Amino acid sequence: MLIILVDSYLVTTLLTLDVSGAFDNAAHERLIHNLRKRRVPANSINWIASFLRHRITDILLTEGATGQFITDTGIPQGSPLSPILYLFYNADLIDQIQEAYPRRALITGYIDDICILVWSRTAATNCRHLEKIHKIAEQWEIQHASKFAPTKYGLIRLWRKVRRVPRPVDSTNVSVNVRGVEIKPVPTLRYLSVQLDQHLTGMKQIEHAQVKAMEVIAAFCSIAGSTWGIKLFHLRQMYTAVLWPQITFVNSMWFVRVGWGFKAAENAARKAMESIQHKALYRIPGALEQPLEQP
Questions:
Q1: Which of 177, 195, 212, 274 counts the highest number of beta carbons within 10 A?
Q2: Where are the domains of the chain?
Q3: What are the tens digits of pLDDT across the range 153-186?
Q4: Fold of 2-19+90-195
Q5: In Å, how far from its chain's centre is CA 231?
């Protein structure tokens, strides 16, 4: 859907929200209410309620321990169940915005990272829509004992830089004002560990992947070489288990392939990936002096 919007005459704007202390401030009663609202089985709800109750916190400082006290709010962090529970906790926020702006806004959320996408003919209209949508989010904030952090919000305009896509006529340098905080549009935005650039070329994500890859390769080189260190078999396992997943993270989202007007971006992405692979294969086992060429 995003590709269809940015390929049209409409201006697309994306705003990311951030909830401060999402897990720590979750109210147990509201969470149980949301679970019942979505018809979770009663046995599961009772088990979850028992999981949340009778939690004790003891803070250890340099001067000594504070002593144990009961923690009657929050979802325990570190449990694989915690992200699932918080998805139920903020489900009302997503539903309320979708009901208020059907077919005019797209909202997604993963734990405390909320993403709102709006589209219209001008960037100014998008910003006004986002400010109204945030009023709905503020009502959810009050009902769920949560706290938004506008200083951590992100705003970006998305449009394809190709000939067949008309450029925005009006100015796109329009800000969103939330609680006295001015949120200005940026050329690159990080959302769920993915670097989004305003033209959707994926190059910023590739540059980020290259930096991470060089750090991992340097770590590999410190524990092995062509004639010393751990065996090549184990290096290969580390390469496929550690390095490759990092540089190909959600590549189906940011890697542009056979896109009209994006051949240069596709070639640049391929060269960057081949460069990372060559450096890994050459510097770790020392087996290659030239990159492999595909027939």
A1: 195
A2: 2-19+90-195, 28-85, 201-283
A3: 999 988 766 555 556 666 778 899 999 899 999 9
A4: Alpha-Beta Plaits (3.30.70)
A5: 36
